[in-house]
C-alpha cells in the first residue's frame, strides 16, 4: 500500500462491485463490473490462493516457485451468499468477500479475525513499461509481529520495516542494507497467539511494508505481473512454515559429507597450495570434508576449463585429495567469455542460447573473464544443454559439488550491477523481459546445474550451492549469505540471516565463516566458528585480498577452539542428519528461532540471538568481543547446560558464564542426543558403538535418529533406519523405549547410553523384561551403560 509519500500515485484504481460469480471445483471466480476477476482456489483447508486480474481474463498460470509434485486437497468447502458478502468456508477458516469492492477478511471457525484487507487489492497503470503496478494493503492489529522474507540483514521481527526484493550483488553489505542476493516473498504474521502466512508469488521487484508507513497497515506490492498470493493459516507458526515449505518444495537428502566442515578461499591455487591446505587440516586433526576451488582454477576464467599452469592434471589431483577424504567443489559462474576459440561459447552461439536485448543483439556484460554473453536459463533447452556440460567435471574428473556464484545476475561496470531491464527471456514459453525474470535467473541456473551434477554423480547424490535464489530454489540447491564482512556486526547478521532463511523454506544455508571481506581477529574467527558449526551449511570462505583465514592463520588457542567445535559438529552428525531428514520429510526447519519454538511466550517475539538447533539443542552465540558471559533467554521448559550438565528451568532471562572456548549451549530435558566418534572426514572410521546422551526428565520426551548408507538413493527404497526413542522418567525409574522403522542395518551393534541428571542411585537394570547384571552392560558409577542395539525397552530402576 502506498499513500502520502513520494511514491503515491493519484491514479490508483480499485475493483468495483461484484456482478457475477461461478464455482468450478476447488476454485471460485468473482467478476466485477470494471472487469476485475478474483479467483479463489482452495488448495487445502488452511491454504487458499487469491489471484486477481484487471484485464477480464487470466494470463497463463505459471510459477517457478510452486512444487508441482505436491498433491493438495481439502476436506470441506462451502460457498454461501449473504446480503453484503460471499462467504467461503473450509474446515479451518472462513473467508468473507465484500460484494461492493472485493475486499477480503479471513476468520477462524470461532469468528476470530485473522487477517483483513485495508484498501485491499488496487493497482495503477505502468505507462513506462506497460501492465500494472499491483498493490495490496492489509489492516494490522496492535501487537502484531512479522517474520520471514528470507535473506534480510535486520531484526528477526520485521515490524516497522520496509523491505525490497530484487536479487542484488551486494558486496560487503551492512546491517539494514536491502535488497540482498535472495528473494523470498513470504512472511509470517503473528497476533494474539495465532500465526498466518502470506506468499506473494510474483517475480518482479517486490516491496513489503510492515506498518512503517502507517502504524496499523501492512502492505506488499510489485512493479508488474499479477496480484497472486497464498494465504496460509496456522494457527501455530510450525503449521505455517511446514505448509509453505510443502508448497514451494523440499530438497532431497544430501550425502552426509556435505554436512561436514568445508574450507574455501578466493582462491586456492596452484595445486601445491591446495595440497598444502588439505595436508595441514590432517596434520592438525581438524576435521574437514571439502575443499573449494574459486575462479582461478579456470583457464582465463572460462567456465568448464582448467588452468594448465596451475592444475596440469586435475583428475589425478582430485583423486589424490579423495584418498585423503577431501571432496573437491568448484565454482561455475553464468558469464561465458566471448571467445570464438572457446567451445562452450561456440556451442551456445550456434544454438542461440544467449540472452538478447529487446532489439536483437546478445546481452553483453563484463564479469571476471572480461566481456561475456549469458545463457538464458529460463529456456528448458538451455538448461538441458547446461546440465550436459558437467560431464567432464563430475564423471571424468571426479568433482563432487558445484558452486554457482555471480548469478543475481551480477554484471560489473554498470550502475545497476545487473542486466538491462529490456533483456528478453524465454521464461519456459512465457516470453518476458528481465524485469520479470531477474529474480529467478539464479534459481534457474542452479536448477540446470543441479540436474547436470545429479545426472553425472549418479548413483551418488548431488551437491550444489548458489548465491542467488527465489522461493522454491531449495528443491535444487543449498545457499550461503553472500559477501559478508569480518566484523562483529556481521556475526550478528549471520546468526539472524540463517535463522530467517530456515523459517523461509530455505533451510540448507550458512554464512562465510570469519567474513568474506576484510580480516577477522582470532577472537572473531573463533566466535564465528562456534556459531557456524550449528548452521546447516558450514564453510569458512574469504577474499584473498585480505590475508589468510584458515584456522592456523591465528594462534594456538584459536586452532584448539576450531578443532573442538568442528569435532563437536562431527560428533553431532547423526543428530544433524536427522534434522535434515525431518526437514525433507515433514518440512520442519532445521533451525528454529525462539518465536517459532514457543510463539505463545511473548518474551520470544523480539529475541534475535538464541535459536533451537534441531528440536532439542538451544544455542546462543557470543556476539561481542572480550565476553566472559552473556545474558540470554532460556525458553520455557527444562534444560541442561551442555558443558556443566547443570539443570535449569526456562521461561526466564539469565546470565550465563562462558569461556573463550565455549558458548552457551543447553539441551532439552528428556532428550536423547546421538553422537558419532570424531572423524577427520565422513567415512574415515568404522565403529561398533553409537553414543546416546540421555538427559533425565521427570516426564516423557521423544527423540529420533535417522541413518542410512550416507549417500546414494537406497534410502528411497526403504533402506534407512529411523529410530524413535522415548525416555520416560519417574521418581525412581527411567524407561527407554526403542522402535525402529526401515530396512537399513547400521554397522554398529551397540549403544553406549550416557545417563545425565539421573536423580536416583541405580539398583537394577532390565532389558526387555529381563534383569541383567551391571557388568553385563558395563554399568558403573560414571553412569553409562552399553547395550545391544536390538533392545525394545530398557528399565533403569533406583532407590
Automatic annotation (TrEMBL):
InterPro entries: DUF5110 (IPR033403), Gal_mutarotase_sf_dom (IPR011013), GH (IPR017853), Glyco_hydro_31_AS (IPR030458), Glyco_hydro_31_C (IPR048395), Glyco_hydro_31_N_dom (IPR025887), Glyco_hydro_31_TIM (IPR000322), Glyco_hydro_b (IPR013780). GO terms for biological process: carbohydrate metabolic process. The keyword Lyase does not apply. CDD domains: GH31_glucosidase_II_MalA, GH31_N. Residues 587-673 form the Glycosyl hydrolase family 31 C-terminal domain. It comes from the Bacteria. SUPFAM superfamilies: (Trans)glycosidases (SSF51445), Galactose mutarotase-like (SSF74650), Glycosyl hydrolase domain (SSF51011). Keywords: Glycosidase, Hydrolase. PANTHER family: ALPHA-GLUCOSIDASE. This is DUF4968 domain-containing protein. It comes from Flavobacterium cupreum. The lineage of its organism: Bacteria, Pseudomonadati, Bacteroidota, Flavobacteriia, Flavobacteriales.
Amino acid at each position: 500500500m502506498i499513500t502520502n509519500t513520494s511514491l503515491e500515485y493519484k491514479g490508483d484504481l480499485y475493483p468495483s462491485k461484484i456482478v457475477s460469480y461461478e464455482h468450478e471445483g476447488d476454485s471460485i471466480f468473482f467478476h466485477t463490473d470494471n472487469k476485475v476477476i478474483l479467483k479463489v482456489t482452495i488448495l487445502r483447508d488452511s491454504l487458499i490462493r487469491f489471484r486477481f486480474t484487471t484485464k477480464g481474463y487470466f494470463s497463463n498460470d505459471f510459477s517457478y516457485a510452486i512444487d508441482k509434485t505436491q498433491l493438495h486437497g481439502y476436506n470441506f468447502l462451502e460457498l454461501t451468499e449473504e446480503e453484503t458478502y460471499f462467504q467461503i468456508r473450509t474446515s479451518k477458516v472462513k473467508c468473507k468477500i465484500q460484494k461492493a469492492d472485493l475486499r477480503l477478511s479471513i476468520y477462524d471457525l470461532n469468528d476470530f479475525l485473522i487477517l483483513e484487507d485495508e484498501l485491499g487489492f488496487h493497482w495503477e497503470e505502468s505507462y513506462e513499461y506497460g501492465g500494472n503496478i499491483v498493490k495490496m494493503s492489509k489492516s494490522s492489529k496492535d501487537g502484531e509481529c512479522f517474520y520471514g522474507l528470507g535473506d534480510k540483514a535486520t531484526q528477526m521481527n520485521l515490524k516497522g520495516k520496509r523491505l525490497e526484493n530484487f536479487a542484488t550483488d551486494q558486496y560487503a553489505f551492512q546491517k539494514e542494507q536491502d535488497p540482498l542476493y535472495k528473494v523470498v516473498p513470504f512472511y509470517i504474521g503473528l497476533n494474539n497467539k495465532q500465526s498466518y502466512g502470506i506468499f506473494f508469488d510474483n517475480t518482479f521487484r517486490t516491496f513489503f511494508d510492515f506498518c512503517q508507513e502507517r502504524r496499523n497497515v501492512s502492505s506488499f506490492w510489485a512493479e508488474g505481473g499479477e496480484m497472486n498470493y497464498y494465504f496460509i493459516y496456522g494457527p501455530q507458526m510450525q503449521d505455517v512454515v511446514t505448509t509453505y515449505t510443502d508448497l514451494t518444495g523440499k530438497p532431497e537428502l544430501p550425502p552426509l559429507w556435505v554436512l561436514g566442515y568445508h574450507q574455501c578461499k578466493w582462491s586456492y591455487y596452484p595445486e601445491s597450495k591446495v595440497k598444502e591446505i588439505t595436508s595441514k587440516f590432517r596434520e592438525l586433526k581438524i576435521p574437514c570434508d571439502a575443499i573449494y576451488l574459486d575462479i582461478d582454477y579456470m583457464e582465463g576464467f572460462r567456465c568448464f576449463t582448467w588452468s594448465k599452469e596451475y592444475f596440469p592434471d586435475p583428475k589425478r589431483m582430485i583423486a589424490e585429495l579423495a584418498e585423503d577424504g577431501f571432496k573437491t567443489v568448484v565454482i561455475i559462474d553464468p558469464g561465458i567469455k566471448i571467445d570464438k576459440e572457446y567451445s562452450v561459447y561456440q556451442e551456445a552461439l550456434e544454438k542461440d542460447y544467449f540472452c538478447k536485448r529487446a532489439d536483437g543483439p546478445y546481452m553483453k556484460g563484463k564479469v571476471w573473464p572480461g566481456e561475456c554473453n549469458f545463457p538464458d536459463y529460463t529456456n528448458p533447452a538451455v538448461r538441458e544443454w547446461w546440465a550436459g556440460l558437467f560431464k567432464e567435471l563430475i564423471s571424468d574428473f571426479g568433482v563432487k559439488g558445484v558452486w554457482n556464484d555471480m548469478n543475481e545476475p551480477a554484471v560489473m561496470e554498470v550502475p545497476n550491477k545487473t542486466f538491462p531491464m529490456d533483456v528478453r527471456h524465454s521464461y519456459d514459453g512465457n516470453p518476458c523481459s528481465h524485469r520479470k525474470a531477474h529474480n529467478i535467473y539464479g534459481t534457474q541456473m542452479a536448477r540446470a546445474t543441479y540436474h547436470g551434477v545429479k545426472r553425472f554423480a549418479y548413483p551418488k547424490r548431488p551437491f550444489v550451492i548458489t548465491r542467488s535464489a527465489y522461493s522454491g530454489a531449495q528443491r535444487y540447491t543449498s545457499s550461503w549469505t553472500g559477501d559478508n564482512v569480518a566484523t562483529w556486526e556481521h556475526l550478528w547478521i549471520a546468526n539472524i540471516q540463517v535463522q530467517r532463511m530456515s523459517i523461509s523454506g530455505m533451510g540448507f544455508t550458512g554464512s562465510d565463516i570469519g567474513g568474506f571481506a576484510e580480516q577477522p581477529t582470532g577472537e572473531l574467527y573463533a566466535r564465528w566458528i562456534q556459531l557456524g558449526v550449528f548452521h546447516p551449511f558450514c564453510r569458512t570462505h574469504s577474499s584473498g585480498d585480505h590475508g589468510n583465514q584458515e584456522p592456523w592463520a591465528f594462534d594456538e588457542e584459536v586452532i584448539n577452539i576450531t578443532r573442538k567445535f568442528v569435532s563437536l559438529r562431527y560428533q553431532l552428525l547423526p543428530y544433524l542428519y536427522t534434522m535434515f531428514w525431518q526437514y525433507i520429510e515433514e518440512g520442519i526447519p532445521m533451525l528454529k528461532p525462539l518465536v517459532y519454538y514457543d510463539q505463545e511466550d511473548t518474551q520470544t517475539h523480539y529475541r534475535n540471538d538464541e535459536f533451537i538447533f534441531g528440536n532439542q539443542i538451544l544455542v546462543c552465540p557470543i556476539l561481542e568481543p572480550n565476553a566472559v558471559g552473556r545474558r540470554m533467554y532460556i525458553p520455557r521448559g527444562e534444560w541442561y547446560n551442555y558443558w556443566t550438565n547443570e539443570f535449569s528451568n526456562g521461561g526466564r532471562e539469565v546470565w550465563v558464564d562462558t569461556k573463550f572456548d565455549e558458548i552457551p549451549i543447553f539441551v532439552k530435558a528428556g532428550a536423547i542426543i546421538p553422537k558419532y566418534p570424531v572423524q577427520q572426514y565422513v567415512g574415515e572410521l568404522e565403529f561398533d558403538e553409537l553414543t546416546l546422551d540421555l538427559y533425565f526428565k521427570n516426564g516423557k520426551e521423544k527423540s529420533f535418529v535417522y541413518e542410512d548408507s550416507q549417500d546414494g538413493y537406497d534410502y528411497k527404497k526403504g533402506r534407512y533406519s529411523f529410530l524413535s526413542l522415548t525416555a520416560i522418567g519417574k521418581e525412581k525409574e527411567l524407561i527407554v523405549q526403542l522402535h525402529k522403522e526401515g530396512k537399513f542395518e547400521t554397522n554398529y551393534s551397540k549403544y553406549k547410553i550416557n545417563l545425565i541428571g539421573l536423580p536416583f542411585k541405580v539398583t537394577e537394570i532390565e532389558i526387555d523384561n529381563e534383569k541383567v547384571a551391571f557388568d553385563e552392560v558395563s554399568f558403573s558409577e560414571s553412569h553409562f551403560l552399553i547395550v545391544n542395539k536390538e533392545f525394545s525397552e530398557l528399565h533403569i530402576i533406583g532407590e
